[in-house]
Amino acid sequence: MIELIAATNNANKLREFRQILGNDFKVMSLKEVGISVDVEEDADTFYGNALKKAKVISELTGKASLADDSGLIVDALGGAPGVYSARYGGEDGNDVLNRQKLLKEMDGISDRKARFHSTIVLYFPSGEVIRAEGNVEGEILYEETGDNGFGYDNLFYSIDLGESFGTATEEAKNGVSHRGRALQQLVEKLNQR
User: Fold this and answer.
1) Complete edge-to-edge strand list for the sheet that includes strand 65-74
2) CA within 20 to 30 Å of 167's CA: 16, 27, 147, 177, which one?
3) pTM of the predicted model over 0.85
4) Is pLDDT of 92 > 90?
5) DSSP 155
6) Domain with 117 in it
7) Is 69 an annotated catalytic residue?
C-alpha cells in the first residue's frame, strides 16, 4: 500500500482521490496529519500550482504528497476560466459566483465546447516528481442541471456520459472525469517505476 498526503483542503477532491485510487493507496488528509496550511495557487499553469502544493506539503511532512490543479477550459472564452477556475467569480472557492459569472459570460454564445483539465503531481521527499494529466470533453449547458458533484459540474455536459456531471453518479463521473483520467495515468506511471 502506497501512503501519501493529499495537498488539498477541498473535501470533494479528497473524496475523489480516495474513491478513484482505491485500496492500493492510503490517502491522508492534511487534517489527519495535523497540518493547517493553505498553499497559495499563484502560478500561471496547472502544473505550476500542483507542483507547488505537492512540494510544500511533502517538505512539511517528509512524506509523499499528491496535489491536483484543475479547471474548466471554455473555447469561446479563450480558455477561461482555466487556471483561475476556483476564483473566476471573484471569491476563491465560491462555486455559486463562479457558475453565475460563467453563465453571464456565455450568454448569447452558441459555441459551447469546453473541457475539464487536471494536472496531478506526486512529489516524493527525495525530490522525485511524477506528473499526470487528464481531460474530459463536453459543453457548457445553458442552465444548471442536477445537484451532484461540485464546482462547475452541473453546468458541464459530458460527451462521454451523455449527461451533466451534475446528474451523474460519483462512480460514473469518476470513470470518465479529468481527475479520474489523470489519477489512472499516475497509477500507470507508478507501476512502471
Assistant:
1) 25-28, 2-6, 65-74, 113-123, 129-140, 156-158, 163-164
2) 27
3) yes
4) no
5) G
6) 2-191
7) yes
